[in-house]
Amino acid sequence: xxxxxxxxxxxxxxxxxxxxxxxxxxxxxxxxxxxxxxxxxxxxxxxxxxxxxxxxxxxxxxxxxxxxxxxxxxxxxxxxxxxxxxxxxxxxxxxxxxxxxxxxxxxxxxxxxxxxxxxxxxxxxxxxxxxxxxxxxxxxxxxxxxxxxxxxxxxxxxxxxxxxxxxxxxxxxxxxxxxxxxxxxxxxxxxxxxxxxxxxxxxxxxxxxxxxxxxxxxxxxxxxxxxx
Length: 228
What we know:
alpha+beta; six-stranded mixed beta sheet; 6 strands; globular
């Protein structure tokens, strides 16, 4: 951990205390992607702790090099372990050369306020009125959560969970069992997995080989073709 990243640890504690229990504040070290979380407040929101890995969304940000044009990305959708939809934002922490070395992230869970809003309405309005209003609120909430449609973040508490998440996302559109896909379909999935940063995670080669029911040498061949 660099001195610059270390200096943000106090910021994490400060923001966590000021913003309150509905805001998760996370500091991540990009030099250790398998255990990137080095400070966290209100981790109950995503279920993560110190030592949890990077998310697939961060891999997307790094792969697309969005940090070269933007210092931060705000208001993209996150999905917590309990299914709550979060409003997530991330700021890139860069070294003197402009290279990202860490991230300061804030994830806001507004579910308590939405539930309170609906309860208050139910006290003073007829049931049908509340139902119609709630539908409108849900649509409004969706619009707020989708302010940035480029990214959806799922939070994993360990590397094994993250591998599963990335692989399941990449194969979700295929109806045929993964071990029965043809070569072109496998290559399509491999490209998605590569772009999502899966192969930067420890143990990903044997993991994918097992899911594809093929040898590790075949996975290395696919990766070589992608790199070329």
